[in-house]
Design a protein that fits this description.
Number of helices: 19
Strand content: 15-25%
Strand order of the largest sheet: 18-2-1-19-20-22-21
Helix content: 25-40%
Low-confidence stretches: 651-655, 685-697
Largest sheet: 7 strands, mixed
Oligomer: single chain
């Protein structure tokens, strides 16, 4: 009979240290995998790393022959806690000494269970070899952006991940699977000095930087005329002390700020278009305040001018309850605005131009020339795929923006399609240079498991495609201008987990030095590629409710969908339509469909399933099957860990109460699991956008589960409800 020793996570965790490291990690910028590509509700790497370690390392109480007293067990537990506290901070991920200690403890627990001697603690290679040979793989069947598989790799374990969503699969492949394939490889770009060593995936990252720069230069040659500089004339400096030093100079434009317009409902205006503006404020920085001032010119005409210094900015023309006509003050209800949008009569007008100054933003009046250049862009075609409308999440549809192409200006479409085409051209250049550098010409493509010249070119193209996604996120008409003192920059499209209607939007310049420019996006991507020589990983597209071969005898750690909190498929179509255009030749199996799979997605979406009850039933059945798959195929000797995130509204009342939580617990019970422990982990930023409100994710509970023995005793429903109420109370108090 196999003895299942208790694991550390079933007894004790240093939660304070884990939560502190998780909170700090949210503010990490360059180099963090989250900057590679947006994925909604990522779990912090600190929490994933700590949970995996504690899931695999024995608790001393499981070895009474080695730790016979409670005092001895407490000392050993404190030592293991110290390792977690040391490895939880982000800086520890770059310290092989610290991570090596964690790997050794996992190997030591495994060796103890096998009755073997552990590898030499001071021989890092021997420890990794032992783990690769004897450690079970870790599988995350809802891998999303790949946080859990990445941390399993970091701990020296084989990692498997799967997700139904092809956008998630590509992001997770770029995070976990691709870097180890080309670890230690020199870059192939002909201008690189290859005499030095190239640790981990640093050679791959260097090539991404080099070919990304080529793309930028080539794109500027082709479409740079659509992004002209703005000359500061003497007339512009009248009354503007901030502009006088720049008189006669050409400045690079950071962004063009536009207002959507619709016909005024006031009959006196005879159909004159008036702006829909949430706020006219451009900068709220003390001493450098700036705003747009509408100037009425009579006969239904107006113009915009920029004011700086003292004064009071005018109120916006649209708020939560509707809008008002700028010219007459007549109410403009949303019914009117929606009707105008659906009839295709919504337009846009340039309000202001933001230019690069010396360590400051300069705000200038709009010019007819600037507006004419923007309108001269002629895209070859628009993205015609429809936006799936989840009321409250994709509200743009209610205003006539029904296809993904509708979310971009013509100039944005020209720029993005140009960069998309250049990804393919860059791939061909990488391939030619890889062959010239002597890489295998006959090896298969990356999607078929290859590591030769073709696969390497595919890898570089994949990361260039993800850089394009970063440009798309800051290159739509859902991007507004952040006027706060610390920012003065474009917001990204997904400032929250929705695609809301944005009235006044900012159109950035991909060739500037700020706000989502192409060079900066390449920099974000190449710095986010893990540089360490981590264990190999495999990520596939797979429905967790279907057959999941990667689960066989694997330790399961996963972050499943949260009932109805996030519409992953509906939102990720925004990226998918561009990825399909750009990377279909690189990953043909992932881009067979026109849009992201939705019918199978385990989210309780009422509009998709014909009502709330049907959606709940679908979620319960699908999640139940996924949990049964984990129970049937997962490793027996280790607990399963599952993250469950709660919305703010669910922790604001008495205890934790939601249909999703109850459904999830029922699914665990029906699948044959028993909950062995619960750990509240703070995984959300305290300064998340206020606009998320009650739908904001507040925190996560890590559930530790074991397979329920066949001879397990039963309790009454009353006893179960009392126990559940007590567990809710304890979690609520911990949060």
């Amino acid at each position: 009979m196999t003895v299942h020793r208790k694991k550390l996570i079933e007894v004790s965790l240093p939660l304070k240290a884990i939560n502190a490291a998780s909170a700090r990690e949210k503010s990490i910028r360059h180099g963090h995998p989250s900057t590679l590509h947006l994925w909604w509700a990522r779990r912090p790497l600190a929490a994933c790393r700590a949970v995996l370690f504690a899931q695999l390392v024995d608790d001393p109480s499981g070895w009474p022959e080695e730790f016979p007293t409670e005092e001895a067990q407490a000392r050993e537990r404190k030592r293991l806690h110290g390792i977690i506290e040391e490895m939880a901070p982000w800086k520890a991920t770059h310290d092989e000494r610290i991570i090596g200690k964690a790997r050794y403890e996992i190997a030591r627990s495994l060796a103890r269970g096998f009755g073997q001697s552990p590898p030499d603690e001071n021989d890092a290679d021997a420890v990794l070899t032992y783990l690769h040979k004897y450690a079970p793989s870790v599988c995350d069947p809802f891998c999303g952006g790949g946080s859990i598989p990445l941390e399993a790799q970091r701990l020296g374990l084989r990692a498997h991940g799967s997700d139904l969503n092809p956008v998630a699969v590509v992001v997770a492949k770029a995070t976990c699977e691709i870097p180890p394939k080309f670890s230690g490889r020199q870059p192939v770009h002909p201008d690189v000095d290859r005499t030095g060593g190239w640790r981990g995936a640093s050679g791959l990252a260097e090539d991404i930087r080099r070919y990304g720069q080529w793309m930028r230069d080539e794109a500027e040659t082709r479409i740079g005329h659509l992004y002209p500089k703005i000359r500061v004339t003497e007339a512009m400096t009248d009354g503007r002390d901030d502009l006088r030093p720049y008189s006669g100079k050409d400045l690079t434009v950071i962004a063009w700020l536009w207002a959507r317009t619709v016909a005024s409902p006031d009959p006196m205006m005879r159909g004159a278009h008036v702006p829909l503006v949430r706020s006219f404020v451009l900068s709220s920085k003390k001493g450098r305040r700036a705003w747009v001032e509408p100037v009425h010119e009579g006969a239904g005409r107006y113009r915009f001018t920029v004011r700086v210094g003292s004064g009071t900015p005018p109120s916006g023309t649209v708020a939560r309850r509707g809008g008002r006509c700028l010219l007459t003050g007549a109410p403009m209800p949303f019914t009117h605005i929606r009707a105008e949008g659906k009839a295709g009569r919504m337009r846009a007008r340039l309000m202001a131009v933001v230019a690069e100054g010396r360590r400051q933003r300069l705000y200038l009046d709009p010019t007819e020339e600037m507006e004419a250049v923007a309108r001269s862009a002629e895209p070859e075609g628009k993205l015609s795929e429809s936006i799936s409308h989840w009321p409250g999440r994709t509200n743009v549809v209610e205003y006539g923006l029904t296809t993904w192409g509708d979310l971009f200006t013509d100039r944005q479409l020209v720029a993005l399609t140009t960069f998309s085409d250049l990804v393919g051209e860059a791939r061909e250049k990488v391939l030619a240079d890889a062959l010239a550098a002597g890489m295998d010409s006959r090896a298969p493509r990356l999607a078929d498991g290859g590591t030769g010249a073709q696969a390497y070119a595919d890898a570089v193209a994949t990361y260039l495609g993800l850089a394009l996604d970063r440009s798309i996120d800051r290159g739509s008409t859902i991007c507004s201008w952040d006027s706060s003192p610390k920012m003065e920059a474009l917001r990204n499209t997904f400032a929250r987990q929705a695609i809301p209607m944005v009235w006044d939007y900012a159109e950035g310049n991909p060739f500037s030095g700020s706000s989502g420019n192409w060079a900066k996006n390449i920099d974000w991507v190449q710095k986010a590629i893990p540089s360490g020589a981590h264990a190999r990983a495999a990520v596939i597209q797979q429905d967790a409710a279907g057959e999941t071969p990667l689960l066989y005898r694997a330790v399961v750690a996963t972050d499943p969908p949260y009932y109805d909190n996030i519409g992953y498929a509906d939102l990720s179509d925004f990226f998918y339509v561009w990825q399909r255009r750009t990377l279909r030749d690189v990953w043909p199996g992932l881009y067979r469909r026109v849009l992201v799979p939705k019918d199978e997605e385990l989210v309780a979406t009422p509009y998709r399933h014909g009502g709330k009850e049907a959606a709940e039933q679908f979620f319960m059945e699908g999640m139940g099957q996924a949990l049964r798959n984990m129970h049937h195929s997962g490793a027996d000797g280790f607990p399963v860990t599952l993250y469950y995130a709660f919305k703010q509204a669910e922790v604001a009342e008495e205890g934790l109460t939601s249909a999703g939580w109850a459904t999830f617990l029922q699914g665990l019970f029906d699948a044959g699991y028993v909950i062995d422990g619960t750990w509240p982990v703070r995984t959300e930023l305290p300064n998340r956008p206020i606009s998320l409100g009650a739908n904001a994710l507040a925190s996560s509970v890590v559930l530790v589960c074991r397979k329920r023995p066949d001879d397990a005793s039963a309790i009454t429903r009353r006893e179960f409800v009392a126990s559940l109420r007590d567990m809710r109370f304890r979690i609520h108090m911990s949060l």
